[in-house]
Structure formats: structure tokens, C-alpha cells
């Protein structure tokens, strides 16, 4: 199997795993909403971190850092659970978690080229978040037009929960493809 296909398999595997775990968390677990929020935040922050550093996925320090970030995300969400559940608070916590993920993934490889990596990864992360939002919006529009309930069908539930993480993962895969192509064109 080519390196490109292994990379695609890695990204889509992480996205699908995130979607499956989120689906189980919401539909099957009997956990309270605050526990679901804590585990969901840890799952998405850790998975996003690993995808941002996919080139270093064979290094143990990447996985240790992902676990630490997931724990930090869980602590932040748990600490903020006592705040009022207004849109301003929710969006602020989400932005904080995204910044934690981005800064952690940018800092881990070292200080050399930090600003360039921060701008590049931040830009790709915004595009990936837009793709995830678009996937969710299009699926929501489609099920609304067809008068379907995504929570009554196993396949529709899987699409509902896995669509955004898969879209996010695919955009980050495209980031790696573009970087590889740039490196190949720069090589003499």
C-alpha cells in the first residue's frame, strides 16, 4: 500500500473513530450531559491534535501529548460546566479548546518555524472546521427535506455523527498532500 493511501486510511480512521465514539456517547451511554461534554471535548481535542501532527504519529511523545491535551480539554470543560450555558460561554469554551489544540500541535515540533507553522496549521484548521460545519449543514438540510430522523436509523446516526469528523479529517489529509507536493516541487 502506498504511503499516500496509508495516510488517507489514518485520517479517515481517526475521523470515523471519533464519529463512532460520539455516536455511542450520545445515543447509547446513560451518562449525564456534563460527562458527555467532558468526554466529547477530550475526544475531539486529542483526535484533532493527532491529526495536526500526523507526520509524527509514530512517535510516542505525540500520543502522550495528545493524551495530556485530552485531559486538559476535559478539565477545562468540567471547570466551565458551572458557568451559565449561554451561547457566549459555549463559543468561548470552544474557541479556547481549538486554540489549545492548535498551539499544542504547533509547539510540540519545536520553536523553529513556529510562526509559520501556526499560521499554516491555523489556516488549514479553519478550512477543516468549515468543511465539518458544511457537512453537518448539508446533511441536516437533506434529512429535513426527506423528513427523516437521524436518531432512528443506525446508518443515518452514523452519518450524522461521523460526517463532520470525517470532513475535518479529509481536509487535513489534503493539507498533507499539498505539503508533500510542495516539497517534491522544491527538491532539485
Helices and strands in order:
Blueprint lengths: L2 H26 L4 H20 L7 H21 L6 H21 L6 H32 L8 H33 L2
Helix pairs in contact: 1-2, 1-6, 2-3, 2-4, 2-6, 3-4, 4-5, 5-6
Keywords: Membrane, Transmembrane, Transmembrane helix
Description:
The protein is an all-alpha fold. It has one domain. The protein contains 6 helices and no strands. The chain is globular, with a radius of gyration of 17 Å. The two termini are 26 Å apart.
In short:
Helices cover 81% and strands 0% of the residues.
H/E element order: HHHHHH
Shape: globular
Helical run tally: 6
- The rounded Rg comes to 17 Å
Poorly predicted tracts of residues:
none
Beta-strand percentage? under 5%
Q: Largest beta sheet, briefly?
A: none
Keywords: Membrane, Transmembrane, Transmembrane helix
Transmembrane segments: 7-27, 33-54, 66-84, 90-110, 122-143, 155-174
What tags apply to this protein structure?
188 residues; mainly alpha; membrane; transmembrane
Amino acid at each position: 500500500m502506498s504511503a499516500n493511501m496509508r495516510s488517507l486510511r489514518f485520517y479517515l480512521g481517526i475521523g470515523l473513530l471519533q464519529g463512532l465514539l460520539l455516536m455511542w456517547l450520545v445515543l447509547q451511554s446513560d451518562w449525564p450531559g456534563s460527562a458527555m461534554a467532558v468526554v466529547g471535548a477530550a475526544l475531539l481535542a486529542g483526535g484533532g491534535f493527532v491529526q495536526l501532527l500526523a507526520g509524527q504519529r509514530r512517535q510516542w511523545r505525540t500520543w502522550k501529548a495528545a493524551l495530556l491535551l485530552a485531559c486538559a480539554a476535559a478539565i477545562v470543560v468540567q471547570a466551565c460546566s458551572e458557568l451559565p450555558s449561554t451561547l457566549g460561554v459555549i463559543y468561548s469554551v470552544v474557541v479556547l479548546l481549538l486554540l489549545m489544540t492548535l498551539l499544542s500541535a504547533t509547539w510540540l515540533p519545536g520553536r523553529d518555524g513556529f510562526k509559520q507553522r501556526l499560521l499554516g496549521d491555523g489556516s488549514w484548521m479553519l478550512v477543516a472546521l468549515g468543511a465539518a460545519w458544511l457537512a453537518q449543514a448539508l446533511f441536516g438540510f437533506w434529512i429535513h427535506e426527506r423528513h427523516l430522523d437521524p436518531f432512528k436509523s443506525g446508518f443515518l446516526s452514523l452519518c450524522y455523527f461521523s460526517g463532520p469528523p470525517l470532513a475535518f479529517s479529509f481536509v487535513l489529509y489534503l493539507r498533507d498532500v499539498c505539503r508533500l507536493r510542495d516539497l517534491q516541487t522544491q527538491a532539485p
